[in-house]
Design a protein that fits this description.
mainly alpha, membrane, transport, repeat, 0% strand, Mitochondrial carrier, single chain, Mitochondrial_Carrier
Length: 433
């Protein structure tokens, strides 16, 4: 076993025994043997002589790892809010089931329990891992390419400089985005390009995940609509035959479909794998990207608002701290957790307000087969046709249905993502990982 990496591994047992014995000989005035004069690899080595850590993550590895962790944690918190948003976006304009976000939350909890609020969580967690890893990786990668194209130097970590003999200049594999932004901050226009590229790339990953998620979130609603339609049809046929022979059970089912569903609970509902395979069998692989136009618009424009909202808030706070402290060496590492949370919350609200109608159209397209596929003459609508239908039947309010509850979950969720990502990156820089 090698003990050459000082400061990272324990000294070999032989060296430890030799050191203790040497100290005893020195205290007694007895000359030490040459073999016992060998110092431990940890002893006498200054900070400047310590070698590099046993491993070092590349820039891409950090983006993927930290983005994935932050995305998974935030998704568990925000999922009930997202479920309410989807159900508000996709309910019928003629016969809406919910009066608002709180009513939707209350009805979902009463009819389906706490489990119903987390319906379809498995796909969003998987999607959040891919989404945030792709977002941060693409965002930082494009920033690096823009720095290189514009002739701006990319700072290298101290370990990279030591490995190459202290040379400066180019961008090492473990370059920290915090260091790069501190030494050579890019203009906001360059950051907008990087954010748009990150959002566009993420949309390709997100669309299939959100398709399955939305289908799972409205399954109980679709089941309830089927029960109501069947009960209404039975009651109508009974009343036409004879008013005295009307079915009491049909009347009960028509008036209280939620109670019937509550007893049946989740039995017979498709899981993510079943929905995935059913979609491929019905529409092929292309069917997984139903609603891609809406996702692309939302993620590209929303990505610009998300990253630029965070960067603007951070730069404003950094400028303020520089004036208060009277020095220029203030970076994102000096921002407190509360300041990062505030910047992240602003980013989350900006992301949703900018292009929320595109998300409403996308959700409607992805769930219309589940909710209205049983109706005679059903035919899928395109993006612009769906947009016109929502605006004609529900107006601007319909395009922003669920926006308030989405901002309520997006603000703390985005704050959590940026806080965790920046803290993990600062921790990795501190330990040279």
């Amino acid at each position: 076993m090698s003990y050459e990496v000082a400061g990272w591994l324990r000294p070999p047992p032989e060296a430890t025994r030799a050191t203790r014995q040497r100290h005893r000989h020195v205290a007694a005035g007895v000359p030490s043997r040459p073999a016992l004069l060998a110092l431990s690899p940890l002893e006498g080595a200054g900070e400047s002589e310590r070698g590099p850590p046993p491993f070092q993550l590349s820039r891409a590895s950090k983006d993927i790892a930290f983005g994935s962790i932050a995305g998974m944690v935030s998704k568990v918190f925000e999922h009930p809010f997202d479920l309410v948003k989807v159900r508000l976006q996709t309910q019928s304009a003629e016969e809406p089931m919910y009066r608002g976000a709180f009513d939707c939350f209350r009805q979902t909890y009463l009819k389906e329990g706490a489990r119903g609020l987390f319906r379809g969580l498995s796909m969003p967690i998987f999607g959040a891992t891919l989404e945030n890893a792709t977002l941060f990786f693409t965002y930082n990668f494009v920033q690096g390419q823009l720095r290189h194209a514009s002739g701006m130097s990319v700072p290298r970590s101290s370990d990279d400089q030591q490995a190459s003999g202290g040379g400066g200049g180019g961008g090492g594999a473990s370059t920290s985005s915090l260091d790069a932004d501190a030494e050579n901050p890019l203009p906001m226009s360059y950051l907008a390009v990087a954010a748009a590229a990150a959002g566009s790339a993420t949309s390709l990953v997100l669309t299939p995940v959100e398709l399955i998620k939305c289908k799972m979130q409205v399954q109980m609603v679709a089941r309830e609509l089927e029960v109501v339609a069947a009960a209404s049809a039975a009651a109508a046929s009974s009343s036409t035959a004879s008013s005295s022979l009307a079915s009491p059970s049909a009347t009960v089912s028509a008036t209280a479909p939620g109670q019937a569903l509550s007893s049946a609970s989740f039995r017979g509902l498709d899981g993510p794998v079943s929905l995935f395979m059913r979609t491929i069998r019905a529409d092929g692989l292309r069917g997984l990207w139903l609603g891609q136009t809406g996702t692309l618009l939302r993620e590209t424009g929303g990505g610009i608002a998300w990253f630029l909202g965070f960067e603007w808030a951070c730069r404003t706070l950094i400028t303020r701290k520089r004036k208060l402290w009277g020095r220029n060496g203030v970076t994102k590492k000096d921002l407190t957790s509360l300041e990062l949370i505030g910047a992240g919350a602003l980013a989350g609200i900006s992301y949703n307000v900018v292009l929320f109608p595109a998300d409403s159209v996308k959700s409607t397209m992805q769930t219309e087969q589940e909710l209205r596929g049983h109706q005679p003459g059903f035919k899928r609508s395109g993006f612009f046709q769906t947009f016109r239908h929502i605006y004609a039947t529900r107006g601007l309010r319909g395009l922003y249905a669920g926006c308030a509850v989405t901002c309520m979950r997006s603000a703390p969720s985005s704050a959590l993502i940026f806080l965790m990502y920046n803290k993990l990156e600062a921790l990795a820089d501190k330990h040279g990982i």
